């Protein structure tokens, strides 16, 4: 009980230190209670958690944690008692259901009822019952999953039993201590207090939470407990104060107050989230902070937002139109009733007075008749339409999901349809907003090039390998692992082959699997059938070394062996530091192929060291004395590459069987040592020739031990690419712990670096750093890698060095910047590598500063950012890397198809501008003939001017296609402007700062106007918020249908803002998928999803909706025409049951089948002719005109179906129900045959539904008329159908009436291709041709389209030449002006042009840029002169105000940003 009293005193009954023992007890209790109330009000935004152990066995209401929710989850919406009232209430959110319930209730009023009251409720009850059954089934499935999850077991500490006992998840409470074992799923959000790892680290797999399969590290609360001893929950007396439950997965902070009132801060690195899986850790223990629905996983489980389809919005408008039509018909009935009765001098006999013998006043009688007519004509509103639409969409989703072309065999993932209500929107897309990395590209990072100490290594051999590389299919390839064992005979090796292992699939761990859960430790990742290996393709692992760099690295290795004289140790030091930085500066988890995901913490059996550590120590001492900390600042910073680091998992294996280029023990004597310092010492030769040369200069060691195969699992694919690049040069990462990192050098020596600190990557700093102690020199070294724009600004000022070194430093930096620009133009992702040497005192001061920031309670994030900045300054540049993010297969074809379909494509990316532009050219988003406008500015006035000037130039070049109207060959004096097309095509490139200026400066309208003329728009350096703002701007202002596609968490807001959101289940987790409406695995799948399934879904559903309106209006008009012959009494000539079943069963199945299966055009034709997609964009099937035509046709057919039988039986004694049965039958034939005419595809199911509906009608009518003897006394439908079977007139009417009624429809279908043939009709004609003739006609079609396109006037020899590349940018000079530059191609600069450039540069700083540019661009792009840009006639040529005189004759090979400027 001491613990209970202690916690009570600490929590809210804490008394003052000095208190008189004689004080009144009530006074003593009131003061702490007041303080507790004040503290409670202060901490309303916080959560206070204490241990449940002191309260075990006591009443639950005494537990301070009693107010927090339990761990039992309930995702069901209903219970047995609440299902009926709650479901009915939810269904009343639909206007149609409220309408029909009100009509049914009105029918119970005796004065106005038109049917039997009981019968009137049947239709609405059937519709609502079907919906209720569907909702109940879905809820029952959720109930079963909830029960399964709540019943899972875990280990919870029991104070009474002094051990951990098994409990169900639902019994876990906040404040319980939970022990987790390896491979166990975490039951709640738990604060980590103990880990079996000696460093207090455990690893999580978050695949079930966000789909990422990497291992994330979590750290025990720092300073809490000694990890060398087992954690004892009984001794825990701390109070935990943290945030209230929220859904932010990346934010969590709080503190732990110890008994001595000291506070220990913690953050999300110590929080284990519910649903994640514990990996690579034997035991972990923690206290439950959030449970059940308060966990972050459950708070994020809200699903995608509800989106309304365009057809649904149009349908609601048409329903209101039908309501208005219904009111008009009812008013006609009410007025007709009053006029009819007013013609009689005395009330007719069929009008019954009340009890007192009084008759209703004409106005009251008319009002009652108005209500009666509403009941009679209620089926004008299609009650079954909503249910039919849901069934049709389910069928459409089923066929989309089972399309084999949308299945990714590599990832074993089909398409996922997460939203069932917007399938038809796929066929009406007008704008596509796409991410770049991982969406248009593979997000498979391949090391391509690097620059070290200002010298560039192009890795041509690796480029050639990538061009010819083709990955084998993972399902058909037998995975065989080899170990090369040295034999006793030189040169021969023994190969040890393992058994083939089936590759693990990503999808199997991307979903939450709760079945068969067990707490027992499994065999690891390989032993789990649902495990998967992320980023494990061969293309990401294998790097072919560059010949020149390989020789330099080999030279450094030989220097370590022979202690070569001190001639060029500077180059050697830079190369060694560069590869050590690649190996050390990361968070890669090392494991072996034989035991994946079991972290390597001990050194494996390795080859013996080639030289002694003493000799290496001597060499490093000499390097230390000789090396100079040279650094410099950039004159022009490139954009950062912050998104090259992501929270992704990269699991790649270093192949131990790769060729060893280095001698592990000795090196041969180098005869021409100086030649090794030349960049072109070794010519670029074939790989085989180079191997032979290496064997001549390096001896091969045949003695050694088996080297294991390492598996690397990084937080981003970039990290894995860099680690494997270092491994290709024999700088191999061997093991990593929280305190040490072991690296194998090229000569085989193992160096173990003390890992003093790691500053992980974040999106604000855009860099990461590690602080290590060198094992030989004992120096404290900071290795940093990050975005070039950030690293270049953190370099040490070169002015502090000597004049000679300053020139050298500036030269190296300029060269490195030039190489970075090359990489960006080639579409590579760039990273800069730097280092810094710290003294012991500096590091000690910084470590204390960092510790204070980590333990701070207030402003913790700001303090951590400040400490990181202090460490990562005054850096020394080592080099830079270029990593290729390969373009996905089929992306250029898909984009070209979308263009033909009339879809505008925007790319919204966080990447740098040059990289994005070059990727745009690669994927055909931009064409070589396009004029590309680049706008970069942060000034509102300048941005507005640029937009105005550019818009003016674009409008001058526009081509307006006009359609002239004529009658009998006589042209009318007006025309129709159908399209505005710039000639040549225009591309627009803006950056994030420009977007901010546009949004904050109210320039959205001008930006959108310019974007409408643009062929493509690229928005670079966009934040997630900017992406969603751009999508919302286009969707709301232009009133267009938008689609957003992305693969990462930064694309979620964009996906949710668009009308249709597509998530790619790729390399960046599943957050985009979870927020999307549809999920695909490749961008190319979007082509068939939109052009084929989108077209089908729209055309099917649009035709079905129009058909439902048509058939209901046609049928209800039969009752309306009858009112003119029954004194507008509200009577019906059709039996009640026939009326009910007519719409529910007899005519509802064929349109549903048509909505699911009908195909107006085959998939092959739709893919071959993407322009057919425009019919959906223009809403050609379902629009006001087609709706009105359908309503008019319904009126005409109802007139025929009523008056043809009426004229046949005129002046006869036919009964009312007999007459109604005949009319009902001919209307059934007319409506069904009308549907048959609309079928574009006839299958067995179509025949069955049409014939089956007719047979069902006759069978039901026959049975019902035979059994209904006193159904509707005094007039009964008894034996009516049987009598009609023997009447010849009945068959004649059934033949003539539908023919006359459908004759106009048939005539229109027959002659619609005669006057003006639409593309859809042409495509339907092509669909019927043989394959060879079909292909020939398609080629002719495309050639005709190209001949009539606006750009068809370009000569054939200029098709591959650019029109221009115009850059509009603002430089940060004093009196900065606007730069207008045209960029043509690769013509040499003539002296006059260079003079013009010199005149344009506004200050001395820009002369450096001009010098750099002219040096870099010798033989490069030509710039226009002032006279050419300002003096030419703007009307003489499109964009003549921007173009250089020789732009048309230049050949464009890359997008280059201009450095020239014109000050206006």
Describe how the helices and strands are arranged:
Elements: H1 2-11, H2 25-42, E1 46-49, H3 83-91, H4 95-106, H5 117-120, H6 122-150, E2 153-158, E3 163-168, E4 177-181, E5 189-195, E6 201-205, H7 207-210, E7 215-219, E8 239-243, E9 253-257, E10 263-267, E11 271-272, E12 277-279, E13 283-290, H8 296-299, H9 310-342, H10 362-376, H11 385-401, E14 416-417, E15 431-434, E16 441-452, E17 455-457, H12 460-468, E18 482-486, E19 493-497, H13 507-510, H14 538-541, H15 547-562, H16 569-584, E20 589-592, H17 613-626, E21 650-654, H18 687-697, E22 710-714, H19 717-728, E23 732-736, E24 740-744, E25 750-759, E26 767-773, E27 780-786, H20 788-791, H21 803-825, E28 828-838, H22 840-855, H23 860-871, E29 876-887, H24 891-900, E30 904-908, H25 913-922, E31 931-936, H26 940-956, E32 958-967, E33 970-982, E34 986-991, H27 992-1000, H28 1004-1012, E35 1016-1020, H29 1024-1038, E36 1042-1046, H30 1052-1057, E37 1060-1064, H31 1071-1074, E38 1078-1080, H32 1085-1123, H33 1136-1146, H34 1149-1157, H35 1163-1168, H36 1174-1177, H37 1184-1208, H38 1216-1238, H39 1244-1267, H40 1280-1284, H41 1288-1315, H42 1319-1327, ...
Parallel strand pairs: 15-30, 15-36, 30-35, 31-34, 31-39, 34-35, 36-37, 37-38
Antiparallel strand pairs: 1-8, 2-3, 2-4, 4-13, 5-11, 5-13, 6-7, 6-12, 8-9, 9-10, 14-38, 16-17, 16-29, 18-19, 20-22, 21-22, 23-24, 24-25, 25-26, 26-27, 27-28, 28-29, 32-33, 39-40
Helix pairs in contact: 3-6, 9-10, 9-32, 11-32, 11-34, 15-16, 16-19, 21-25, 22-23, 24-32, 26-28, 32-34, 32-37, 32-38, 33-39, 34-39, 37-38, 37-41, 38-39, 38-41
């Amino acid at each position: 009980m001491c613990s209970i009293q202690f916690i009570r005193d600490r929590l809210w009954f804490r008394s003052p230190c000095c208190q008189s023992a004689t004080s009144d007890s009530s006074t003593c209790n009131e003061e702490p209670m007041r303080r507790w109330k004040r503290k409670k009000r202060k901490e309303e935004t916080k959560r206070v958690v204490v241990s449940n152990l002191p309260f075990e066995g006591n009443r639950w209401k005494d537990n301070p944690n009693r107010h927090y929710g339990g761990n039992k989850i309930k995702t069901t919406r209903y219970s047995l008692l609440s299902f009926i009232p709650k479901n009915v209430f939810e269904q009343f959110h639909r206007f149609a259901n409220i309408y029909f319930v009100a009509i049914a209730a009105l029918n119970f009023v005796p004065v106005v009822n038109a049917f039997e009251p009981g019968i009137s409720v049947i239709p609405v009850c059937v519709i609502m019952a079907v919906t209720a059954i569907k909702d109940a089934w879905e809820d029952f499935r959720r109930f079963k999953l909830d029960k399964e999850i709540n019943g899972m077991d875990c280990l919870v500490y029991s104070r009474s039993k002094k051990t951990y006992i098994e409990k169900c998840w639902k019994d876990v409470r906040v404040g319980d201590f939970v022990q987790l074992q390896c491979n166990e799923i975490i039951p709640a959000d738990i604060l980590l207090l103990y880990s079996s790892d000696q460093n207090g680290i455990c690893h999580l797999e978050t695949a079930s939470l966000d789909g990422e399969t990497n291992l994330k590290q979590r750290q025990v609360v720092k300073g809490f407990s000694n990890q060398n001893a087992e954690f004892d929950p009984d001794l825990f007396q701390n109070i935990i104060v943290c945030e209230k439950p929220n859904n932010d997965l990346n934010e969590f902070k709080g503190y732990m107050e110890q008994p001595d009132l000291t506070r220990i801060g913690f953050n999300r690195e110590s929080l284990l989230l519910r649903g994640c899986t514990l990996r690579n850790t034997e035991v972990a223990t923690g206290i439950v902070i959030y449970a059940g629905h308060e966990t972050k996983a459950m708070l994020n489980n809200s699903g995608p937002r509800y989106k309304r389809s365009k057809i649904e919005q149009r349908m609601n408008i048409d329903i209101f139109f039908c309501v208005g039509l219904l009111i008009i018909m009812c008013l006609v009935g009410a007025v007709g009733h009053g006029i009819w009765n007013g013609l009689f001098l005395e009330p007719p006999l069929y009008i019954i007075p009340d009890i007192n013998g009084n008759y209703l006043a004409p106005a009251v009688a008319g009002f009652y008749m108005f209500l009666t007519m509403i009941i009679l004509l209620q089926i004008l509103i299609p009650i079954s339409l909503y249910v039919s639409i849901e069934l049709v969409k389910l069928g459409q989703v089923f066929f989309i999901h089972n399309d084999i072309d949308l299945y990714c065999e590599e990832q074993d993932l089909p398409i996922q349809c997460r939203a069932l209500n917007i399938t038809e929107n796929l066929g009406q897309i007008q704008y596509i907003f796409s991410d770049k990395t991982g969406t248009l590209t593979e997000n498979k990072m391949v090391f391509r090039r690097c620059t070290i100490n200002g010298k560039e290594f192009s890795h041509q051999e690796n480029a050639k390998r990538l061009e010819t590389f083709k990955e084998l299919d993972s399902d058909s390839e037998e995975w065989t692992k080899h170990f090369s064992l040295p034999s006793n005979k030189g040169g021969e090796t023994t190969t040890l082959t393992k058994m083939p292992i089936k590759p693990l699939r990503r999808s199997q761990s991307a979903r939450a699997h709760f079945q068969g859960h067990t707490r027992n430790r499994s065999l690891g990742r390989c032993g789990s059938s649902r495990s998967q290996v992320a980023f494990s393709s061969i293309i990401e692992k294998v790097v072919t070394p560059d010949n020149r760099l390989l020789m330099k690295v080999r030279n450094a290795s030989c220097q370590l062996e022979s202690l070569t004289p001190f001639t060029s140790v500077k180059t050697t030091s830079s190369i060694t530091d560069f590869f050590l930085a690649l190996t050390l500066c990361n968070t890669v988890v090392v494991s072996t192929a034989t035991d994946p995901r079991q972290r390597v913490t001990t050194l494996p059996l390795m080859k013996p060291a080639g030289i002694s550590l003493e000799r290496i120590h001597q060499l490093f001492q000499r390097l230390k004395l000789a090396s100079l900390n040279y650094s410099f600042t950039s004159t022009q910073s490139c954009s950062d590459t912050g998104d090259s680091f992501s929270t992704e998992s990269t699991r790649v294996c270093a192949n131990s069987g790769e060729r060893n280029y280095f001698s592990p023990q000795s090196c041969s004597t180098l005869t021409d040592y100086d030649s090794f310092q030349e960049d072109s010492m070794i010519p670029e030769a074939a790989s085989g020739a180079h191997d032979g040369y290496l064997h001549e200069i390096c001896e091969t060691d045949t003695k050694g031990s088996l080297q294991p195969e390492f598996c690397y699992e990084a937080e981003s694919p970039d990290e894995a690419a860099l680690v494997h690049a270092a491994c290709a040069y024999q700088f191999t990462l061997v093991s990593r712990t929280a305190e040490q990192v072991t690296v194998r050098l090229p000569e085989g020596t193992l160096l173990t670096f003390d890992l003093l600190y790691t500053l992980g990557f974040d999106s604000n700093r855009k860099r990461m750093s590690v602080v290590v102690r060198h094992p030989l020199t004992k120096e404290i070294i900071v290795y940093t890698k990050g975005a070039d724009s950030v690293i270049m600004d953190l370099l040490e000022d070169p002015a502090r060095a000597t004049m000679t070194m300053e020139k050298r430093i500036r030269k190296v930096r300029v060269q490195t910047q030039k190489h970075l620009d090359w990489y960006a133009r080639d579409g590579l992702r760039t990273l800069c590598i730097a280092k810094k040497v710290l003294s012991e005192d500096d590091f000690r001061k910084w470590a204390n500063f960092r510790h204070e920031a980590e333990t701070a309670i207030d402003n913790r994030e700001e303090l951590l950012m400040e400490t990181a900045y202090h460490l990562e300054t005054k850096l020394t540049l080592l080099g830079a890397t270029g990593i290729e993010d390969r373009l996905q297969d089929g992306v250029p074809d898909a984009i070209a198809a979308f263009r033909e379909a009339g879809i505008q494509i925007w790319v919204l990316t966080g990447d740098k501008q040059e990289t994005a532009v070059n990727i745009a050219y690669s994927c055909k988003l931009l064409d070589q003939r396009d004029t590309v406008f680049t706008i970069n500015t942060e000034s509102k006035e300048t941005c507005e001017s640029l937009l105005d000037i550019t818009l003016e130039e674009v409008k001058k070049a526009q081509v307006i296609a006009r359609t002239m109207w004529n009658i009998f060959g006589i042209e009318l004096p007006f025309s129709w402007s159908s399209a505005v097309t710039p000639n040549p095509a225009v591309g627009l490139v803006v950056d994030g700062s420009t977007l901010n200026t546009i949004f904050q400066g109210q320039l959205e309208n001008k930006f959108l106007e310019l974007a409408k003329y643009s062929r493509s728009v690229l928005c670079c350096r966009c934040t997630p918020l900017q992406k969603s703002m751009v999508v919302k701007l286009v969707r709301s202002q232009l009133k267009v249908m938008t689609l957003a596609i992305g693969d990462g968490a930064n694309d979620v807001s964009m996906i949710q803002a668009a009308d249709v959101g597509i998530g790619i289940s790729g390399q960046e987790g599943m957050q985009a998928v979870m927020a999307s409406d549809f999920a695909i695995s490749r961008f190319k799948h979007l082509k068939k999803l939109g052009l084929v399934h989108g077209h089908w879904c729209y055309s099917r559903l649009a035709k079905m909706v129009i058909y439902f309106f048509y058939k209901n209006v046609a049928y209800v008009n039969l009752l309306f025409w009858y009112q003119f012959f029954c004194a507008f009494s509200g009577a019906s000539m059709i039996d009640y049951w026939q009326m009910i079943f007519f719409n529910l069963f007899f005519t509802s199945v064929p349109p549903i089948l048509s909505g699911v299966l009908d195909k107006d055009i085959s998939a092959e034709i739709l893919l071959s002719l993407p322009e057919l997609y425009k019919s959906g964009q223009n809403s050609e099937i379902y629009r006001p005109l087609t709706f009105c035509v359908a309503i008019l046709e319904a009126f005409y057919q109802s007139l025929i179906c009523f008056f043809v039988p009426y004229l046949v039986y005129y002046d006869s004694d036919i009964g009312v129900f007999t007459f109604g049965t005949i009319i009902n039958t001919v209307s059934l034939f007319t409506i069904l045959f009308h549907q048959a005419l609309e079928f574009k595809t006839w299958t067995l199911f179509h025949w069955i539904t049409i014939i089956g509906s007719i047979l069902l009608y006759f069978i039901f009518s026959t049975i019902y008329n035979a059994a209904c003897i006193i159904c509707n006394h005094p007039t009964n439908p008894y034996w009516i159908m049987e009598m009609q079977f023997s009447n010849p007139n009945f068959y004649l009417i059934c033949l003539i009436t539908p023919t006359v009624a459908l004759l106009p429809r048939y005539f229109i279908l027959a002659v619609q291709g005669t006057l003006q043939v639409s593309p859809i009709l042409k495509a339907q004609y092509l669909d019927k041709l043989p394959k060879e003739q079909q292909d020939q006609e398609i080629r002719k079609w495309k050639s005709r389209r190209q001949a009539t396109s606006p750009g068809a006037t370009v000569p054939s020899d200029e098709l591959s030449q650019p029109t221009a590349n115009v850059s509009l940018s603002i430089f940060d000079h004093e009196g900065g002006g606007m730069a207008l530059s045209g960029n043509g191609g690769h013509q040499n600069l003539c002296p006059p042009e260079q003079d013009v450039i010199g005149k344009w540069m506004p200050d001395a700083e820009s002369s450096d840029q001009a010098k750099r540019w002219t040096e870099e661009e010798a033989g490069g792009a030509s710039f226009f002169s002032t006279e050419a840009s300002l003096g030419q006639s703007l009307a003489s040529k499109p964009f003549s105000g921007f173009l250089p005189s020789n732009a048309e004759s230049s050949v464009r090979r890359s997008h280059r940003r201009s450095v020239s400027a014109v000050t206006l």
